[in-house]
Amino acid sequence: MPDISDSLQPSTAGRSLPGSALRDRGLLGRAALEALRKLNPHSLIRNPVIFTTEAVSALVTALAIEAAATGGAWGFPAAIAVWLWLTVLFATFAEAVAEGRGRARAESLRRARTETVAKRLLRPDDRSLWQPRPAAALRPGELVLVEAGDLIPSDGEVVEGVASVNEAAVTGESAPVIRESGGDRSAVTGGTLVVSDWLVVRITAAPGSTFLDRMIALVEGAARQKTPNEIALDILLAGMTIIFLIAVVTLVGLASWNGQPPSVTVLAALLITLIPTTIGGLLSAIGIAGMDRLLRVNILATSGRAVEAAGDVDVLLLDKTGTITLGNRQAAGFHPAPGIAERALAEAAALASLGDETPEGRSILAFARAQHGIAAPALPPGARIVPFSAETRLSGLDLPDARYRKGAVDAVARATGAATPPALAQAVERIARAGATPLAVAKDGAMLGAIALKDIVKPGIRERFAALRRMGIRTVMVTGDNRLTAAAIAAEAGVDDVLAEATPEEKLRHIRAAQAEGRLVAMAGDGTNDAPALAQADVGLAMQTGTQAAREAGNMVDLDSDPTKLIEVVEIGKQLLITRGALTTFSIANDVAKYFAILPAIFAASYPELQALNLMRLTSPESAILAAVIFNALIIVALVPLALRGVRYRPEGAAALLRRNLLLYGLGGILAPFLGIKLIDLALHLLGIV
Ligand SMILES: Nc1ncnc2c1ncn2[C@@H]1O[C@H](COP(=O)(O)OP(=O)(O)OP(=O)(O)O)[C@@H](O)[C@H]1O
Ligand SMILES: [K+]
Ligand SMILES: [Mg+2]
């Protein structure tokens, strides 16, 4: 069998150096075209600041044309109009570049969605009777046979069989993973390849809404919605636009007091340089780039809001089996109660597992055969299977003359009324202290012994939990397993806290309680019993190896099935929030210099004393105004790489972070335009343009 731990290695598929998008010529060309398409006012209205800029650009263009037609001075309004249009174009370009990176990934995913022909089973109980059927025509509920070498035609649940599957098409990771019926690794994804053995799969996805389809829509940004934070910032920016509009209009009265009223072109230039075009132009690119950075670490986020929430997460809950451990729990020992032969225990354990479709159940049958040559008998007539459930924490078989149960020790004791002899209790304790899961086996009202199920902690997890702790995040393991096993695994994995013997409802209640205390909660899980908790958590990170239910309940899927990836999610979330804050600060701080550049120019005629404000000693009023507009446009392009890459995040205190960013982006935002406008003014002068 392939080593599943291979799939823990972070994948490098689809990853490239940050900012490399800006060096990709084809991508830039396509983005430029897309930027032009985005000039359509109908779509631009979603961005109030840039929409205002476009309206003002149109107005100044009309004025320039009118001046040219009537023989007036049209050069200055024309130059301003050109740079105002470029301002709008740079903003739409930023968004187009951010989207373009996802589109490239979508194209490679589309190639994975090849047209396969499925083997649809005609009868559920007969694998030899099948009919070819195009994958696209498969409906939910239909059964298909997938054999070694076949592509899995659509998403589904494995109902029979164990196979290794290469999921590289989706995850970029070529080490095969195990897919099997019954347990937490039963979900299969359309477009992935069965490399050995066979599976019978019940289709769960309707045509056109498979995981791959949704993934494509997501990376293309088709499903993207503004987050509540983005909407709030948009409203703030729109408010500032209105305030500056009022301020600029009232200037007309002031300036006309004892001189010439300023021209509409000059007022337009003043308005656009003062409204927050920088952050307005980069806001959506910042959000898209954040989702894209997640994708590069192989995490698929279906909600931008979850990415933002991740930036502020305080607690991470994880289930044990399949999340902290590999989840391939295998029977590894029989421990009979005093006076019971080991073979009698093994026979009872096998009977109790006859109808148990979980990997644990199958491993017990295999172990009984390997250790004692016990062949699993056919299901006797009149037998009733008691399937495993996370609520009862046991499973078993009722025969007309005997009842067999196996499961969590306390659960079996309660259900059968059987007493646990002290020697057995000691054996159970030893198993659990070693980090294995003890299952008690009972026949009617008597305990026959225990089975030890071994599971392995995913490698490297301890260091990663330590890193989470340094980021101020508390890790809590919530598991259905018993206290001792939970404590042993918790100690080995290095989590901060552990909640054992938890039913799905208790996992859910635990999250609600933390949220009620005002904490932001992340949950990582893989099982159907984790689904309610994954849905309730602010960040629900489902393992790609998990069940369909878990993957649908969460708002992120980790294609590498590594719960400690939350580190990356948190960093990217923080980075997103910091980048947005930094560029907003920068954008608003920029206004100071523009004020000093444009106001003296406007009032030059009315109030010559105001020349004292012309700190930059700009060549002429016209040159000052044009230089400010050019700077205002160019700064958007200059900041695109930062918006895409994100401001670097270092784990340090919030106060230190705020201080550093205020200094860098606040003070930088005040000073940069003084320098920039002066340089542009000089250049315009040297080129003889003004
Ligand atoms: N096939 C089975 N038959 C009987 N009992 C089982 C079986 N599988 C698991 N159990 C018992 O039920 C308990 C709860 O199982 P459940 O799957 O809810 O939680 P878990 O997988 O152990 O933990 P986690 O919630 O961390 O994944 C297990 O700890 C084990 O004692
Ligand atoms: K501006
Ligand atoms: Mg589980």
UniProtKB/TrEMBL annotation:
Keywords of the record: ATP-binding, Cell membrane, Hydrolase, Ion transport, Magnesium, Membrane, Metal-binding, Nucleotide-binding, Phosphoprotein, Potassium, Potassium transport, Translocase, Transmembrane, Transmembrane helix, Transport
GO cellular component: plasma membrane
UniProt GO MF annotations: ATP binding; ATP hydrolysis activity; magnesium ion binding; P-type potassium transmembrane transporter activity
Transmembrane segments: 74-98, 231-254, 266-289, 624-644, 664-687
EC number from the UniProt entry: 7.2.2.6
Keyword Electron transport: no
Catalytic activity: K(+)(out) + ATP + H2O = K(+)(in) + ADP + phosphate + H(+)
Residues noted as binding Mg(2+) in the record, renumbered to the chain: D526, D530
Sequence ranges assigned to domain P-type ATPase A in this UniProt record: 130-220
Signal peptide coordinates: none
UniProt: ATP binding residues: D356, E360, F388, S389, A390, E391, T392, R393, L394, S395, K406
Protein's membrane topology: Multi-pass membrane protein
Similarity field: Belongs to the cation transport ATPase (P-type) (TC 3.A.3) family. Type IA subfamily.
Oligomer and partners: The system is composed of three essential subunits: KdpA, KdpB and KdpC.
Entry protein name: Potassium-transporting ATPase ATP-binding subunit
Lineage: Bacteria, Pseudomonadati, Pseudomonadota, Alphaproteobacteria, Acetobacterales
